[in-house]
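Before relying on records like the one below, remember that each one covers exactly one chain. Contacts with other chains, cofactors or solvent are not represented anywhere in the record.
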Amino acid sequence: MIFTETKLQGSYTIELEPFMDERGWFARYFCKDEFMQIGHTEEWLQMNHSATNKNGSLRGMHYQLPPFSEIKLVRCIAGSVFDVIIDLRKNSKTFLQWFGAELSSSNKKMMYIPKGFAHGFQCLTDDCELLYHHTEYYKPNIEAGINYKDPKINIAWRLPVTVISQRDATHPYLNENFKGI
């Protein structure tokens, strides 16, 4: 695996290094020793799989509050998405900055998202599927979100939004009282 730190400290895009032969390819997407080299020592407690049908669909921007903040590892296994993270860490040099990268079944990239980040994605193709690994259990009463079109963040989404849940569409905008998590 090739770990490339993004402009947001502690977050990484990860490229697989597939072994290819006449049968196809094989790649490792997790190795405890290799993840320890970027400081990851926590156990993955929950794994989820999402399917989104229509390009332009948007899910996000979600995060869990302390003490249940979580590290996420996200991988696209069908289609292509624009995966976006926002740094919400109150003492971070990149507080309220965002980063996005294309994850797809063809480029085999993953996103490593540290604690204290919001996460979401937009489908660039129809029929997208993502795998998520989490270091915390999902706790609906601890989950929060930021509106995907918050002008303080100003994410440059790749496509017009075609489908979004009512919950995601009505996440609040940040105000001057938000000091981070």
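Residues 32-36 form the longest helix (5 residues).
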